[in-house]
Amino acid sequence: MRRLLLALPFALLPLADAHAAEAHDHEHEHGSLEAHEHGVGRLNAALDGQTLELELESPAMNLVGFEHQAATDADKAKVAAARAQLEKPQALFSLPQAAGCVVASQELESPLFGDKPHADHDHDEAAKGEHHHDHSEIHAHYRFTCSTPAALKSLDLANIFNTFPATQKIQVQLIGPSGQQGVEVTAKAAALKF
After folding, report:
1. Cα separation of 174 and 181, whole Å?
2. Mean pLDDT throughout 130-137?
3. Which single residue of 6, 37, 108, 127 has CA 20 to 30 Å from 139?
4. What is d(CA 59, CA 41) in angstroms, rounded to the nearest whole number?
5. Residue 182: count of CB within 10 angstroms of its CB
6. 20, 36 in Cβ contact below 8 A?
7. Minimal CA–CA distance to 171: which of 51, 4, 18?
């Protein structure tokens, strides 16, 4: 399943390329098309047998309203509240009860949660004396085991938009029983079919 999710971005490169052109930030030096754009999140979703994997990536700005390390009590409270919401994936993704999906594993990662940032282009550029941008992201990876995966007819992301209103759109790359698709969802059109 992990290989399936890793291959997903390459299968849908034309969609990613079109969206990357819209982003206001530069691309990673190593050629990745992942651009950091406020208001825009990314979701990779794959349903393989009884396993549903969801990987949500979002600029911290969309989820907590800032990207700097939380220093004030108010900022710390916002980070804690966002983390608490992300720790409830069944509520965020509105999975149908009939599918019988239970969380098998979940991982949340962000510099705002105290995780060490990955070595990336920003650090490389800073080492070279180039301008350094501080763009914190929040990554959430969920693995569900679903007793009746056929009941997963759609994925409704409305609760993500309701919970995190600064999120304006989510670029979704999905692999399911009907094949693969790349779509962009908004609060007004937040559901997509598997």
Report:
1. 5
2. 59
3. 127
4. 7
5. 18
6. no
7. 18
pLDDT tens-place string over residues 65-86: 998 888 899 999 999 999 999 9
**Coil/strand/helix, residue 147:** coil
Q: How does the average pLDDT of the chain come out, rounded?
A: 79
Q: Which two tokens stand for residue 99?
A: 């599918």
- Return the structure tokens found at 21: 């052109």
| pLDDT tens per residue, range 165-185 | 999 999 999 999 888 999 999
pTM (predicted TM-score): 0.74
Task: Please list the residues that pair with 40 across neighbouring strands.
Answer: 169
Strands 169-176 and 40-48, how do they pair?
parallel
Residues 137 and 34 sit within 8 Å (Cβ to Cβ): no
CA dist 58 and 171 (Å) reads 10
Specify the residue for token string 């309701």: 162
Task: Give the whole-angstrom CA distance, residue 57 versus residue 140.
Answer: 6
> Vertex 140, ends 193 and 166: CA angle to 5°?
75
Q: Which strands form 40-48's sheet, in the order they lie side by side? A: 101-109, 137-146, 51-59, 40-48, 169-176, 179-186
* Domain extents in the chain: 2-193
